[in-house]
Amino acid sequence: MSVERSPEPRRGSGPMKTVRRVADTMSTALNVIGTLLILGLVILVNADVIGRELFLSPISGVPEIVSMSIVAIVFLQVSQAFRMGRFTRTDAFLDAVSRRSSRVRSAIELLYVVAALALIWFVFSASYPLFEKAWERGTYVGTVGDFTAPEWPVKLVILIGSVALMIQMAIGGILALIGVIHPEDVSGGGQ
Known about the structure:
Layout: H1 14-55, H2 62-83, H3 92-100, H4 102-137, E1 140-143, E2 147-150, H5 152-181
Antiparallel strand pairs: 1-2
C-alpha cells in the first residue's frame, strides 16, 4: 500500500522539506487518533445497543460521548484531508484552467488557500476563548449523578486541529506561490 503525498516542489531547500515532513507526520498522527476514536465509538455504540436489548440497561453518557466525539473526529482528520487533496471542492474549473496555464491555476489555488486560512483563523480565534472558559470554569456535558464529561478536551482538539490545518494550508499556499512564480517547479497546484 503506497501513501499518497501532496505535491512536492521539484527543487526545494532542506528546511522547507523538514517543515513539510513534520507537518505531514503531525497530520497523519492526528488522522490516526481520529480513526481510533471512530473505532472506539463503533464499539461503544454497539455495546450500548447490546446493553439496551439484552440487559435493559444502556451505557450512561453514550449520546454525549458521541456528540463530542464527532466534533473531535472532524478536527482530528481535517488537516490530513487537506494534505491529501480531499477537501470538499470541485476541480473541474481548475483542471480546465491548468490546461491553458499552470500559473493561473496556481494563482487561483493561492487565493483559495488565503481565503481558507482566513476562515480557519476565524474558527481558531473564536474557539480559543471557549476553550479558556471550559478550562477555567470546568464546564461539562451530561447530568450530574448520571454522567458528566469535561468540555475542554474537545475544545482543545478543535484548537489543535485548526493549527494543524493552518500549517498544511500555509504549506499549500507556499507551493501555490512557487507555482505562480515558477510554474515548472510545482505539479498539481497548491495542495
